[in-house]
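Q: What structure does this chain adopt?
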Amino acid sequence: MSIQTLSQGRRWYVLHTYSGYEENVTQNLKQRIESMDMDDKIFNILVPTEKKIKIKNGKRKITEEKIFPGYVLVEMIVTDDSWYVVRNTPNVTGFIGAGTTPTPVDEKEISDLQKRMGVEEPKFKIDISVGSVVKIIDGPFKNLEGKVTNIDEAKGKIKIAVSMFGRETPVELDFLQIKKI
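A:
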């Protein structure tokens, strides 16, 4: 263990875990912190996730996805014994760092990550304007093309004039059901 790591004080570090075991590592680590009386050296455990919007059967679903699968963040003071407790937690493959010395994560990256995780509703990024021609990629009007007549960013909805049976028919869709041509 290097003296430099010891002098870092309370910082965030990245643990590498077997993919899919992030929650398992979090639970194991919490139990180990308690049973080995490490709560004065190991403070927080974080599995960064964010909300994503998916369309399933034409319905919008918000799912939570891991931002960094296979990684867990730990806020701790690195000492020989705290390093040992974390490193020997089941399904932890190691710390991110040079050799056995964990490298602390920049505080700004942690705060950016926490902001990203704190977003209640996922935001839509759409570079379509009224008058754009789009293709419908999901739902009953799949593969039809139409011209955008209205955009409701707050609701994530878009109105399109689709030419059907020789006349323009207005169709309201979700942003995720169309793509720009």
